[in-house]
Amino acid sequence: MDDNRPNALDKATSTGLILLAVMQGVALLALHLAIDHEHWVTADLRWLKALYTVTLALPAFYLISMERLHDRLNFLPLLLAPLLFWLGWHLGWAEQTPEQPWARHQFTFAFCVALGVALFILALFFRSSAVSRTWPTAYSPLLNYSWEFVLTLAQLALFIGVFWGLLWLGAALFAAIGLGFFETLFSEPMFIYPATWLVMGLTLVMIRNRFRLIQSVRQMGEALIKALLPLVALIILLFFAVLPFTGVQPVWDTGSASSILMALMLTLLLFFNVVFHQTHGPSPYPTWLRRVILLAVVLLPVGSVLAAWALWLRIDQYGLSLDRLWAALLQALTAAFTLSYSVLLLWRRRAALPALQRANVGLALLVAIVLIVVNTPLADMRQWVAEHQVKRLLDGRTTAEAFDVDYLRFQLGQPGALALQTLVESEFSQSQPELARRIELSLKQTERWSQEPLVDTQELNDVAQQFKASPNGASLPEPLLNLLVEQNSTCLSQTEPCQTLQVSSDTPFQWLIFEPYSAVGNAYGERDGNWLLFGHLMLLGATQAQDDQTCQTIPTTDDLERITGPADVYRSGSCLYNLRPTIENARQQLSF
Description:
It is a single chain. Residues about 1-5 have low confidence and may be disordered. The chain has helices at about 10-35, 40-45, 45-65, 80-95, 105-130, 140-175, 180-185, 190-210, 210-245, 250-255, 255-275, 285-300, 300-320, 320-350, 350-375, 380-395, 405-410, 415-425, 425-430, 435-445, 460-465, 480-485, 550-555, 585-590; strands spanning about 465-470, 500, 510-515, 520-525, 530-540, 560, 570, 575-580. An 8-stranded mixed sheet has the order 1-2-3-4-5-8-7-6. The chain is α+β, with helices and mostly antiparallel strands. Strand 1, helix 22 and strand 2 (about 500) form a beta-alpha-beta unit. Helix 11 (about 255-275) crosses helix 14 (about 320-350), helix 17 crosses helix 18 and helix 18 runs antiparallel to helix 20 (about 435-445). The longest helix is centred in the N-terminal third of the chain and has 38 residues, at about 140-175.
């Protein structure tokens, strides 16, 4: 039953929210059909991402935060429309390059998460302002609405999932008796979008009008978090206690310890705010346990320093990457919370909770602003990373051979491609012809894993440059190059030359070619005047079990020696290899 509370949604607001949800579904359907029919809007990712951003974000903001339909304050979020369009436009620009109009990057996921968190925070302030008619400065309403938003979204997602699960079960049941109409209907966009968003609007209104249910779930959640908070605090305190004895080197060696520590720190901050949200009244814990929890919170800046130290070591060694820059941003925002909490708890002591709550209000706005700014051209982290990687190359901190051309080309989108274009036209590239060649080949690629040759296969000199032969002075014979062209070798579609080894010992094959990212060598040799692929040389292990790990890290050498016996096993030093023949080679042996 509805709970008849005074601030329940009135009929006009309920109807307005349902209509808004249906309109959003229709708009998304229009965009879907535009993609299917290759409308001009979808040919440019800037337009497409901008329209999707506005269509998804702005109605969702209203659906979750609108308090009364007739409030004049409802015009205020319309100011978000040009901002959202700009953010989506820039995302489309970053993902789209002239050679890759439909490039797939991981940018969209990070964009959705960052913008979702920012809009969630702004929706809290808007909802509080709509209820109180003033700019929210109190922490308690914001906390209450955050619980309501989270639980509403969780119940909404659960209901929509069950709704579609039942539809597909019904469709499968009818299809089993020969009635495939429903299965076809439920697969059509013309049904999916209107039906889903109509149900979403009805469900959202129903959930928001049952405030007591949300309150009950919140009380249960708070009770569970209250029980778990001391455990999280104890884990962090024990970690800090044993760290002086183990040293910080194990943290650097594992590579994941700092990420785990950050996750625990964020969990502690979240649980602390859930439990200690009342400035008056009895303490939720005994005095000694409360002090243990507060001590863990006070020591959180130590964890921020450790995590920042570990990240800095990686950046200093390998330079900036997009993942490391996002990690640095997350650590900086987390450090703002941990340092504020630690200082206020030590300074204000018993009166710290009101100060912490005021700090939370300001820090929440800071998080929202930062997450929006980093998705604008004003602070595009992709461009920062591209400029940093190029600067390391020019400064000599990264060698031309180690410079990751493919990372800039395919992981940084438009900013990376523009940085490579500028670099290949610079005086530095003119003094590094091999690097310039790699950049030019990379800019020719339309897809990261395309199998199309990047060189003129009619020019064997160009083909030969796709292979780096060793020992020095060795070169692949022309018949072998022709065979590689005929087989459309993966090496011809790579910007990095394939490592090639001329075998000096008496083996059936004379050349080993290692394709990119593969430890398996393709064994080529000459038989009766014809070149063919004999098979694939794979590492078995070492002559002594304790050397197995060593053999996995050292390259194959040219002094391969066949071991006498029924198996096709070869030895190089203490490492053992097995030649697995191709089916063509096996058939030729049968013909002999």
